[in-house]
TrEMBL record:
Cellular-component GO terms for this entry: plasma membrane
Coiled coil keyword on record: no
Molecular function GO terms recorded: ABC-type transporter activity; ATP binding; ATP hydrolysis activity; ATPase-coupled lipid transmembrane transporter activity; helicase activity
UniProt-recorded name of the protein: Helicase
Segments for region (Disordered): 320-341
Topology in membrane: Multi-pass membrane protein
InterPro entries reported for this sequence: AAA+_ATPase, ABC1_TM_dom, ABC1_TM_sf, ABC_transporter-like_ATP-bd, P-loop_NTPase, Type_1_exporter
Compartments (UniProt record): Cell membrane
ABC transporter domain residues: 348-582
The ABC transmembrane type-1 domain, residue ranges: 32-306
Keywords carried by this UniProt record: ATP-binding, Cell membrane, Glycoprotein, Helicase, Hydrolase, Membrane, Nucleotide-binding, Transmembrane, Transmembrane helix, Transport
Amino acid sequence: MADSPWRRLRGLGRHLSGERGPLALLALVVPLGVGLQLVAPEMLRRFVDGALSGSPDGLLLTVAAWYCAAALGQTALSTGGDHLAARLAWRTTNRLRAELVDHCLRRPAPFYQRHPPGELVDRVDGDVTRLAGVMSSLLLEVAAQALLVVGILVALFRLDQVLALVFAPFTVCTLLLLRRLVGRAVPFVTARQTSVADLLGFLEERLACAEDLTANGAAPATMRALEDRLGTLYERARRAARVSVRWPATVQGLSAASVVLALVVSVWLHARGQLTTGTAFAALSYAMLLRRPLLALTARFQELESAVVSVGRLAELLREHDGHPPGPAAGGPRPAAGPPLPAGPLDVRFDAVCFHYEPGEPVLTDVSFRLRPGERLGVVGRTGSGKSTVVRLLFGLHRPAAGSVVLGGREIRTMDVRALRAKVALITQEVHVFHATLRDNLAFFDRSVDDRRLLDALEQAGLTGWLRDLPDGLDTVLGAGARGMSAGEEQLVALARAFLRDPALVLMDEPTARLDPHTEELLVPAMERLLHGRTAVVVQHRPHALRHVDRILVLDRGRVVEHGERTALAADPASRFHGLLHTGRAA
Ligand SMILES: Nc1ncnc2c1ncn2[C@@H]1O[C@H](COP(=O)(O)OP(=O)(O)OP(=O)(O)O)[C@@H](O)[C@H]1O
């Protein structure tokens, strides 16, 4: 039962809290609508029996008028109910969307390696939209039709007990069958939706680097990979559709049988004089009405299956809490608020830190170093030696497997991630420019940051001249489809963001890797201003670019092979750093 589709759908209930008013209104509208549907065959019975027994025209007209009024009322209630349910569904699923986005925004780096953006978009939007469709109409329909089935059985019992005795077991068996059927296609629909998410992830990644792909002649390979994925998706969608349509056909057959059953039993009872003609008509009408819940459900069977799968996928995403650094190990104590970090530049300590991404593949082994407040460290080493990993650990993106990373006297794993990030700025070679104004790009959409601070940050980053050339100043829209920027300008905007936050520790991971030496030189004054008076860790491939650091740490295959004052190491021909400076190779 743990994975039952019904339980999955029921899990959404908590998102309905706060919607008591609309729910109460729905609870009134649904039974009223059902009641009016049940009244119609009764009106028919009275009309037919009245006409056959020669009742006065006035009475027949009154019955006909009530019949029309019931039909109109039922239509109005059904339209109102649909509208109410749709609004309720959108509000509820928007809450779920917000919860999902908030959850994703709080996840650490490994989460984004497991889930590419395209897949997350499919979950946050695709899955939730599928769910909204079900919640707005299908669930309401299920509730209304369940009530209708009960009402029909009661009405048949009132008409004739034999009719009720024939129909009750038939209906119960059909509903039990239906109950068993929902969920049969879930594994197939899950496979189909996983394929859709995979396809979206693939498209998002390939379209984002379309320029690189075409320039390197990778377009044909991309098309082949796309065809493979489309083939898999087609196959999975076909299997899901095959399972989903097999059962609705059975249910359609059963519902047709219910009408034949009503006809046979009514004719038989009528022939025995146990049923009036009007009652036989009414019984037939109720049998026809009984088809509706079955057909309504089966016609949207696939939709229901998809929604059940979506709920499962969303629950799975929300359950992902693993590897959320810096925090306690699973089951451990929550990080206490603890004393705040000291003001001013922070001291940094790595004590015998070991780290791996994959078990059995150490990336850092026994790494120790210490930086006093305001000291700047340059980290060099061959590609893959673990330089970026040092920075990621300091930014709290990962947790060390052993040893400790200490910042301002506090072990990082005991700190709240927000408190940590408020003090630390990370600048990498990847700068994301949002499709938004320069103001929002600098302040990360925080409208409380005043223009004076923004202009000051731009000046510190050396962007005042660039700002002057922008058509709308701080309100100029940047990013895709708007004002373009050079790689150097993007990097300077990243520096301006850092100035704005006035961090106590600056982490730089090859911030100039994408730039040519000339543009890199243009950035140096701004970088030196940012590092001035702050503790910093700067990862650089090009040791020449480390003029502004005090100390050097050389890594080799995850181990510290040299650590000391930059000037001393640069002057020592036996040092690895000297080798790197002069030959580009470590001694
Ligand atoms: N997310 C990850 N999952 C698994 N392995 C990883 C991950 N990130 C890095 N690695 C591996 O960890 C090792 C160290 O990576 P890191 O990025 O720290 O090296 P680096 O010295 O900064 O390299 P480069 O100079 O090329 O940027 C490499 O072997 C790399 O393949």
